[in-house]
Design goal:
four-stranded antiparallel β-sheet, single chain, globular, 325 residues, ten-stranded antiparallel β-sheet, HIT family, subunit A, alpha+beta
């Protein structure tokens, strides 16, 4: 049973999901590093499809899948319960947590991270994200889908076979709501369209760019080698983006991750896709955040919410650009 509990200090919802503790290697003690993949066959590899629930979507020639979407065995959200808030005491506010939790398997190749796949495969992953978010949006009790990639143990991945996750939720999380509010407060057009123009004029933080997408180390980078991937085609919803835009974003991520590997090695990272809630639109511009785990978030950052970045974004962009891809 999953439930939501409201933190009255921050105003953010906390998901209580005890089923998630059953994941392989859910807990890791200080100094421990274990590879769960070494003690059983990988459930995401071809030939082990029976180890996952039946696929929701498969992409590729029949009998030879290239991308696969399956329900998560340990869902953070499940069921069609609507979002209902309940006051349980003076500081105890809870809510139901219906939703959907899916796994998007990037490739049959166990070793093929996003940096290793072909441009066509990257585009196929983006198309799968689009299709699943569109499918989620048809559920009347859901309001928003968070698409993520956790790569590496330090980034929260419990299995090493490259994959992403889609979590359809019955509420709009505060982080997304705060981004929406900043778009609304920005004067002078779209916040991220203006960011593209300003960063191209500055010229010192662009990492890769083409006619459809741009990747940059944002002026406000909070962690070393943070990257913001922006489609040039303005639109609030990833699920409505044209094919050329999706392919370009997938390609920009592939290029940037190759550059990152060359600059800092095989570092863990998180990718987060932000798209407007299904039934809300402008003002918003969908985008992706890439946050490498090159340093540790420590007590000051956690206590104040103020980040300390030890690599200036201009230096990060220069180092990434220096890498051969």
């Amino acid at each position: 049973m999953t439930e939501l509990r409201l933190d009255p200090l921050s105003g953010r919802w906390v998901v209580i999901s005890e089923a998630r503790a059953k994941r392989p290697e859910a807990f890791e003690l200080r100094g421990e590093r274990s590879d769960h993949d070494s003690v059983r066959p990988c459930p995401f590899c071809p030939g082990h499809e029976e180890d996952t629930p039946p696929a929701l979507e498969t992409y590729g020639p029949e009998g030879n899948w290239l991308v696969r979407v399956v329900p998560n065995l340990y869902p953070a959200f499940e069921g069609d319960t609507p979002f209902i808030v309940e006051n349980r005491g003076p500081v105890f506010t809870g809510a139901t947590a219906g939703g959907i939790h899916e796994v998007l398997i990037f490739s049959p190749d166990h070793q093929a991270a996003w940096a290793d796949i072909s441009e066509r495969q990257a585009a196929l992953i983006m198309e799968a994200l689009r299709d699943r978010i569109e499918a989620h949006s048809q559920s009347p009790h859901l309001r928003y889908t968070q698409a993520i990639v956790n790569s590496g143990r330090e980034a929260g991945a419990s299995l090493s076979h490259p994959h992403g996750q889609l979590l359809g939720m019955s509420f709009v999380p505060r982080e997304l709501a705060e981004e929406q509010a900043r778009f609304q407060r920005f004067v002078g057009g779209c916040l991220l369209c203006t960011t593209i123009e300003a960063e191209e004029a500055a010229g010192s933080r662009i990492i890769t760019a083409d006619d459809h997408a741009i990747a940059l180390a944002p002026y406000w980078s909070s962690v070393p080698f943070e990257v913001l991937i922006l489609p040039r085609h303005h639109g609030p919803h990833l699920s409505s983006a044209p094919h050329e835009t999706l392919a370009a974003v997938g390609r920009a991520l592939r290029t940037t991750l190759r550059q990152l590997r060359g600059a800092v090695g095989d570092v863990a990272y998180n990718i987060v896709f932000h798209s407007a809630p299904y039934r809300l639109g402008e003002p918003f511009h969908w985008h992706a955040h890439l946050w490498p785990k090159a340093t540790t978030r420590a007590g000051f950052e956690m206590g104040t919410g103020v980040a300390i970045n030890i690599v200036a974004p201009e230096a990060a962009a220069a180092e990434l650009l220096a890498q051969e891809v």
